[in-house]
Amino acid sequence: MNPLEFIGPALEIVFSAQNLLLIFIGLLIGVVVGTIPGLTVTMGVILLLPFTYGLDSAASAIILLMAVYCGGVYGGSISAILLNMPGGVSSIATTFDGYPRAQKGEAYKALNVALFSSVFGGIFSSIVLLLLTSFIAQFVGRFASPEYFALGILGIALVAGVSGNSLPKAIIGALIGIFIANIGLDVVTGVPRFTFGSRTLQHGVSLLPTMVALIALTQVVLKTQDFVVNKGALGNIVHLDKKGMTRKEAKSIIPACIRSSALASFVGAMPGVGACVAQFLCYNEVRRASKRPQDFGKGSLEGIAAAESCSNSVAGSALVPLLTLGIPGDGVTALLLGAFVLHGVQPGPAMFTTHGVTAYSIMIGKLVTAVMLILIGILFTRIVSKIVRVRYSYLVPVIVTFCFAGAFASTGHIREITIAAGILIFSYFLNVLKISVVPLMLGMILADIMERNFVTSMMAHDNNLLVFFQRPISLVILLLTVVLTWSLIRVNKKVMRIVEAETNAEAEATAEAETTAEEQSNSQTEDIAEEAKDTDPN
């Protein structure tokens, strides 16, 4: 059957009143869930999954859950920008520039950029999903364990891009993350590692409680500290201004959106890589290519655009391996796989022949979802943002409750709350030592990918380490790692030189201004003394 024959029936399904309403409701729920720190897109999808049982088709169920996914990804940017608390792992990079921009009194502009970039990335990846699914699936299908291990090495190289002023501290953070990821039972042999006899640690340290503690709970502690020191004043961040993004600024971030969306659409199609790895890769690539890399981390609109367009691009491209290979691209698409099975549909190569209408309905539905996000963002961003503008003394208990509830919900065991509390204390000391948690998160996420694929590669190739250099794709990825690392280090040095020059220029300007003011003051004093002398009769 010709694929064009599926498009007509798929359009009828997507543009039915029921499915358009489901997209609207799903987006709104996703934005609210994504905005509240401690809740995640995954939790939102889990909560809505039982409600899909009553829907008449798998297409409607997946369309609703995809709308929650896309809305949650954008919603995470609201708390990331206003509170420096990402609503999910996909919004971590948004805090790098979103929050500094908001501190400058331009929170609404940062939210505008996030919405524009999210919609851009969603539409871009949806078009890629429709036009290039077959090609991308064939290419990614050639990846084996050596390629995925090499990809993990490439991910670790991104530490050079998020190291800030200290590459050694970033490396230390990444190593700590790898260490934490190795706590628990060995994935191959089942031997306990670094558990120190604790039954709580035998099950390992889950990513969700770690993320909640490292980012959300730590920010709560630091902001509460500021709240007490400043006697209830947390600055102008709680005020949402009215200065939005201009047309000139929208045009200026389009290259960043294109670069980030294209890269994320490719990376997101790789099963198990996820939005976290993709966002750091995209953020660093846009930063490397930027004419003003020194602005990144200080409120750069390009930085916000890179992070947000990447997040929504991954949300679309993660459907590629799910629909074509039956392999979830990330945690949320793993839940979507469950929804498929519940509705009697098995994703995979045969889906485009046996369930072609359903497949194209989902892809077209994803495109409509991305477009409708504009409406949701314009109408509800200010309303939803009030959630994070409530007086902080009222907001803290709610955030902490949701954070610990989210940690508990990851496995349904009380040990996750204990682990989150322990990591919170550890994270506070990291903050005191000025060791960024971003490399730590990166190391923790990539450690499992690298270990599983390294062991599989060794078992499949008689412990031959050269296999990573003998396979063409793996070799290209490793060479790219070297080039990328060298490039990122050069960019960091360039940024440091520019920042140092700007700092020196500001210091010289300040000193010159102080000297001028002093000279003027002395001159005025001398003039007054002369006048007094002239008027003195004696």
Kindly describe this structure.
- The chain has 538 residues and is mostly helical.
- It has one domain (4-523).
- Helices cover 74% and strands 1% of the residues.
- The protein has 22 helices and 2 strands.
- It has helices at 4-14, 17-35, 41-48, 58-83, 92-103, 107-140, 145-157, 167-181, 199-202, 207-229, 247-267, 274-289, 301-317, 319-325, 331-342, 351-354, 356-385, 392-409, 415-432, 437-460, 467-470, 472-535, and strands at residues 184-185, 192-193.
- Strands 1-2 form a two-stranded antiparallel sheet.
- Helix 4 (58-83) packs across helix 5 (92-103), helix 6 runs parallel beside helix 13 and helix 7 runs parallel beside helix 22.
- It is globular and about 105 Å long.
